[in-house]
Amino acid sequence: MARGTAEPGNFLFLNQPARIRAWAALLGQTRMAKPTRQHYLKNMAQFLDYLSETPPAACRLSSTALVLIRREVRALIRGIRRHVIVHEVRTKQAKESRLIRKASLVRCHRTAGRKIPALLDSLESNPSTRQQWRFYGFLTGYLTSISGHRCGVFQNLTIQEVEEASRSPDESAYVINITTHKTNRAFGAAQLSLNREEYSWFCRFLALRAGLPGGSQATYFFFTSRASPCRTLNKYFQSAWVSMGLPGKPTFTDVQTAIATHAKNAHSSEDRRKVAQFMCHDTSTSDKFYALHLGPLQARERRRLFERVLVEEEEEDGEAAGTESPPRKGRKRTETPVSPLEGTSRRTLPWRPARGKSQGARPLEQTEDSESS
């Protein structure tokens, strides 16, 4: 919008609502997804808020013009919001169409648990990068099936965090705390809960890592030949998934989504919150964006709730029709006394003193009719 402007620093080029609408329409002509277009408009709205609160010295836009520009951008955001909601519902439908079944997750957990010790034996006898990548794939597949963590949690797992794992007094339970991950600001350190056998796999790999390329200089548990964190764990996990004979090629995010969905359908709200918190996953985001989408069974349950309401209303109407309500006892109406003198208004009614209170009584007000009589 500032193209061809002699002095863009004064921001007067923003005071063109028609060009703002044309820019938004141009975004719609691209292959940009609707949520991305909404993100662009929100960024512009945030910049205008900043410009309104702390305008630079060279800004020539008046406060009235800024109000009109911000109102125009907010109107564009409201206009695209309805399309974004439809897009989010369709995205949720596509995710649920490839939802990983519970049986596949259980099979992944059991098969990988049997395969990992054999891979460690192979690495101890004949260290090779090929077996190392296979070990990465099966171990991360096993861990994500019991924790639901994202790929970034495993990528950022350090050797020091493994060695400093918390343990129970009898050393039957271990917890590894991973401090660096995507949602650490909201959930703190991500945790891996392990038993004695599972933690022994980590210790065995640390003992043999010196014989692998880059292992002696590595600081991350899943390292490469350059001693850097492995960024292709998702690829190795998918290879292990296929080798176990499981359908599809899911990602770590797909596993997390599947676990969160199964927890939503099987657990109470409190248990679901605990599962999501352990995965460092915020359920309010998915509930907000995808609340309009229900599966066949969930929709049937909502229908039963509606039918139950109608049945209860019919029963209440039947009970009300068969039972006569008793007559209501009202308070007897007290009529206002009318003066026997015709033509006398309420203000000129004769005043009668109360019994026993004749002293200090005021004299009777005289009207014209009473004087004539």
From TrEMBL:
It comes from the Eukaryota. This is Core-binding (CB) domain-containing protein. It comes from Danio rerio. The lineage of its organism: Eukaryota, Metazoa, Chordata, Craniata, Vertebrata. The gene is LOC137489364.
